[in-house]
Give the backbone structure.
Amino acid sequence: MELGELRIFVRAAELGSFSKAAVSTGVAQPTVSRIIGELEAEWDGPLFYRTGRGVSLSELGEEALTKARFLLREADQASEDLRAFSRLPSGIVSLGLPTSLVEPVVPVLVNELRRDLPGIRLQVYEGFSDQIERWLAEGTIDIGAYSKYREGEKTSSLLLESRLVLAGPRESWNIPPEIDFERLADYDLVLPARTNGLRIMVDSVARRLKVPLNVIADIDSTIGQKAMAAHCGCYMVKAPHTIADETARGMFASSVIRNPFITRHVTLVTGHQRPLSRASREVASRLTATLERLTRE
């Protein structure tokens, strides 16, 4: 039994004539008769009663017609769904981002999706790198982007790569454009908690160079760090784009930390708990493009 055979059977039942069904479906009448005979043999009973004016459904035929129409509707719907699937992906895509990327990335993504792919809806989780890695491992999110840190010069192959800076209130700022890492000992610092990737790297360099850092507060929140810097005269160690707005408004100034330079880049990772949907692949592609644009700016 094939869908084409079912369509011929249904048409014959609706028209009450094999000859009319042949014309309607574009096949020869002997073909219609053969297909009906094969279906009767397969279903072990007559589907039609032959009359002088055509055919009428038997009891088995009535039951077969109901089921055949249902199957054909399901097949037609599946075909339509697949055609739509090939045109526009849709569905919920869960995305994990660090706080520093939410503002520059999410509005751009949402506006692009609303314009180009309105069937996709983002579900954004905000967290630290270790949280995002755990969410990926647990299957909570489909896509994650988080920060990695290393010593050394910048390269041209990493997403949103930047050198860390010492940042603080612009008022009375007299620090040169670049500052040696060992000079961080001269400033009151507000840094993330010790489990944060940036803090781990800064502490590692400080231990190696035997630099005594004066950390007066551990604050994971970027908002909290900025508040401490603005109102308590403290200094932060940040990636430049995380203070770009405040710098443009004249609130903060910054100096690149050198000897060694500490670079930060963003890693984009997809989950392995389930295959990525087309919608997730689309979001990952657009997220990568957004990060690449931010890298060039």
In short: The radius of gyration is 33 Å. The longest helix spans residues 59-87.
